Structure to design on (491 residues):
């Protein structure tokens, strides 16, 4: 234990010996620091002398200057900061002694007093009552004002929130975004539902799952990679508009855009197509940005991005052909795609089919350049085992991904509701799994059974909430918008 922590524990012992509860829970604040600032922002020192109202606040001491019989400290609560002025003659003797001897930066206190301005004009509370509510046994980290150590910020988010007010604003923004999305869908007749987090099959997306074990049943279970197949079962049951906003889990690498545990919004609408969802997505995201930021403009690395409908629409093959500066027809030749990839140092496993090869090139060459909002449409069938085929094109599906600032924000498609076609797609996925593809989708016989009872034509969409918040908060890493991101254990 370091010297500062030892000193704090000695003060804790002194408090208890004096009969003072260092963790009191009988003080109820009535005011917030922001409310005090708002109430007296226009009043000068003379005007405040006539104010008799007493304010009752509580929060953490984040700065402290002591001058013998007087002291100033900064009180921080959930709404902001306010200075408190302490004078010996205005407190009872015991309270002032406790304050001087045992209270320090990091402690949580309750204060009652009237507003005033100091000689420098700073709005303050002149303390008439002062209570220690929580004794902090560890000091805030050195140079905690504007804490920048990334490891400490992510691993001890509570310190990050104390030190960096802008971090609190990011998570307030996240909460507002989620509330907006729920309201948006609720107003359009969608029903919010909850589906299993664990199941015997990890279906709904091509991703490697986490495995857990149920002891009582002696059964391996999978943490869900997506709620899709359960939500589409609800379409079969007659819930024609459903959504779920919840966690998903994928056993994949960690990067600035990936966390193994993440938040996903998925919604499904019967009697709709993927083009219908393009229009819905434009309304949703433009409304969200306007509501949160008060404008239609985002900023990405200093570059402004306008969110105004209609968004650009382009097919996978057209976008890739433009990036390669080749005729689109060349992208339908597997060997030619292999040569184009080799020329640009994009590695392609030899067992990959044409669709996967095209998408590997797309992700390397096109995706990072899609800064303005762009719907990329008409994906290869090979990588879309749950999507409806395009009419007249058995090798493409009715699917789009929405890109903004070089990031995939949404994935949607017209849903495959032909049970025989879906069975064949699952069988192909099983062949790929047998060949070593750990992300291939399992065969879900119960889902086929549901489709055989008849699922209405429908379209569905998934939106990564973390990446969406990254956009509106101008965050460089997904860890900046997840309160407790996954980290390696400390050595």
């Amino acid at each position: 234990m370091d010297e500062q922590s030892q000193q704090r524990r000695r003060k804790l012992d002194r408090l208890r010996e004096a009969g003072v509860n260092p963790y009191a829970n009988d003080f109820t604040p009535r005011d917030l620091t922001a409310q005090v600032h708002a109430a007296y922002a226009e009043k000068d020192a003379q005007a405040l002398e006539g104010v008799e109202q007493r304010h009752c606040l509580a929060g953490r001491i984040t700065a402290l200057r002591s001058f013998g019989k007087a002291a100033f400290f900064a009180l921080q609560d959930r709404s902001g900061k306010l200075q408190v002025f302490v004078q010996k003659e205005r407190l009872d003797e015991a309270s002032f002694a406790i304050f001087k001897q045992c209270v320090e930066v990091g402690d949580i206190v309750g204060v009652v007093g009237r507003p005033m301005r100091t000689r420098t004009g700073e709005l303050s509370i002149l303390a008439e009552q002062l209570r220690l509510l929580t004794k902090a046994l560890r000091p805030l980290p050195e140079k905690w004002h504007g804490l920048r150590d990334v490891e400490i910020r992510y691993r001890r988010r509570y310190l990050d929130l104390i030190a960096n007010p802008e971090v609190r604003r990011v998570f307030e923004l996240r909460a507002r975004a989620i509330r907006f999305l729920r309201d948006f869908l609720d107003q359009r007749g969608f029903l919010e539902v909850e589906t299993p987090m664990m199941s015997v099959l990890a279906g709904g997306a091509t991703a490697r799952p986490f495995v857990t074990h149920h002891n009582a049943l002696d059964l391996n279970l999978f943490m869900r990679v997506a709620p899709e197949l359960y939500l589409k079962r609800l379409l079969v049951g007659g819930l024609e508009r459903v959504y779920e906003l919840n966690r998903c889990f994928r056993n994949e690498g960690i990067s600035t855009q990936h966390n193994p545990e993440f938040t996903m919004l998925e919604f499904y609408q019967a009697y709709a197509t993927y083009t219908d969802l393009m229009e819905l997505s434009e309304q949703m995201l433009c409304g969200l940005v306007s509501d949160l930021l008060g404008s239609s403009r985002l900023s990405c690395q200093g570059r402004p991005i306008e969110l105004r409908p209609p968004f650009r629409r382009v097919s996978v093959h057209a976008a890739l052909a433009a990036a390669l500066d080749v005729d689109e027809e060349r992208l339908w030749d597997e060997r030619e795609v292999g040569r184009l990839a080799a020329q640009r140092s994009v590695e392609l496993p030899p067992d990959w089919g044409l669709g996967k090869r095209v998408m590997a090139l797309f992700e390397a060459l096109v995706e990072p350049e899609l800064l303005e909002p762009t719907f990329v449409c008409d994906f290869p069938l090979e990588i879309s085992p749950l999507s409806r085929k395009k009419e007249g094109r058995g090798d493409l599906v009715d699917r789009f991904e929405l890109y903004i600032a070089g990031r995939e924000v949404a994935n949607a498609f017209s849903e495959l509701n032909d049970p025989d076609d879906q069975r064949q797609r699952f069988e192909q996925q099983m062949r790929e799994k047998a060949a070593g593809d750990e992300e291939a989708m399992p065969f879900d016989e119960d889902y086929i059974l549901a489709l055989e009872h008849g699922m209405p034509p429908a379209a569905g969409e998934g939106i990564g909430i973390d990446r969406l918040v990254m956009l509106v908060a101008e965050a460089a890493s997904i860890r900046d918008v997840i309160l407790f991101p996954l980290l390696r254990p400390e050595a």
In short: The longest helix spans residues 165-186.
